[in-house]
Every structure is written in structure tokens, then in C-alpha cells.
Amino acid sequence: METLRDILDAAAAGRFPPADGATTVLPQPSPRDAGVLSFTAHTVVFTDEDPEWVYETLRAVDSDPLAASMSPRFLTALLERTGRTAETIDAVLVGDPLPGEPSCALREIDDPAHPRIAYARRRRDGVRAWAADGGVLALGRGVAGRLEVSVEVDAGARHRGLGRQLVTAARQLAGEPLWAQVAPGNARALRVFQAAGYRPVGAELLLQRGTPL
């Protein structure tokens, strides 16, 4: 059986599910990770709920079938069914690993009280973080074990190219395809990731256990 990780690895290599308007329902890759991942005209719902319930609920959504899996009605029903919460639908991007050394000086840190590190550790395993002058970069294993990046740039260090340096450095540290989730409304961050060579591959809503922090 094809797994979510199989689909993610293929997408990172430029091979996507067929654009056939279908929805694939797969088991959760872990108790933590459940959600909806939408590619071009194909959606993957990863949940331990009954697949037939997913398909029946999608058929009942009054919308364009191609949009049903990301419609508010379906997502609300899925959240209520699972008893989970969610924050936002994110754009999902992936970048290939890069050779060479980061252009900015990085110092690895292990401060569980740092807000960016604490946030990453609630959503990822094996988190490592580095501090730069004016920013923080974190890597960790997220959905289906994929390697994910998050960055934070201090207000006083913005508009100087540091964000692009950090997300480029992340590709140099990764050694494998590196995934990023960015809120679509955060156009500045989207531009930074794309300028650093990350490619948009889809959209994603993660279902979180408990109240999001």
C-alpha cells in the first residue's frame, strides 16, 4: 500500500498524484499527524477515521468537487469528527538540499524556552535550532517524518535579506528534501522561500490534538 511518505517523496522529486479529481484516504503516519494535503486536482486525507465516512462527507459538500476537500464545510466536519483543532491552511513548499556552507554565521542552540523552538517541538521530532544575528532557524521531523524548516527574523533585522539567507542555509544543512509550510497570506515569506529555490507543491491543513498554542 502506498503511504503518505511515498507520496511526499514522489512530490519532492516532481512526481505528483494524477490530476483526476480524486481523493485518496490513507491512515495517519503517526498518532500526532492527521490532515488534508491538496495537490493539483488530487487530495490526500490522512486520518484513522473510516474512509467511507470521508467519501460520503465529501459527496455531501455543496461545492465544485475539485474544491470539496478544502472547503470549510468538509474541514469543519472532519475537525468535529476527530475532535481536533486547526490553525490555517498552509501553502506547502519543498527545496532540494544544497552543497556548501551557509553564508551567514550560525550558532546551534538548545533553549527549550525560546518561542520558535518550543513551537517547533510541539509539531516536530528531533528539532535542532541555530541562531543568527537577528534570527533563528529550526529543522525537525514533521508529517510522515519529512524534514521541515521554520525561521524567525527579529523585527529590527527585517528587509536586509536575512530571511532568504536562513532558508537557503536550511537547504545546506538538510542533506535531503526540505519542506516548508507557509500561510498563503504571508506573501513576504512566500516570496522569500521561492527566491531561495523552494517550489510550491500544494496546500495543507494539519489537524492538531488539543487546543493550538
Secondary-structure content class: alpha+beta
**Helix run count:** 6
Give average pLDDT, whole number: 93
- Give me the strand/helix succession: HEEEHHEEHEEEHEHE
The level of helicity is 25-40%
Principal-axis shape equals: elongated
Distance between the termini: 34 Å
Number of strands: 10
Residue share in β-strands:
25-35%
User: Unreliable runs, pLDDT <50, ≥5 residues?
Assistant: none
Please state how the strands of the largest beta sheet are arranged side by side: 1-3-2-10-4-9-8-7-6-5
Largest sheet: 10 strands, mixed
Q: How large is the radius of gyration?
A: 18 Å
Quick synopsis:
This protein is α+β, with helices and mostly antiparallel strands. It contains six helices and ten strands; from the N terminus they run αβββααββαβββαβαβ. Strands 1-3-2-10-4-9-8-7-6-5 form a ten-stranded mixed beta sheet, sandwiched between helices.
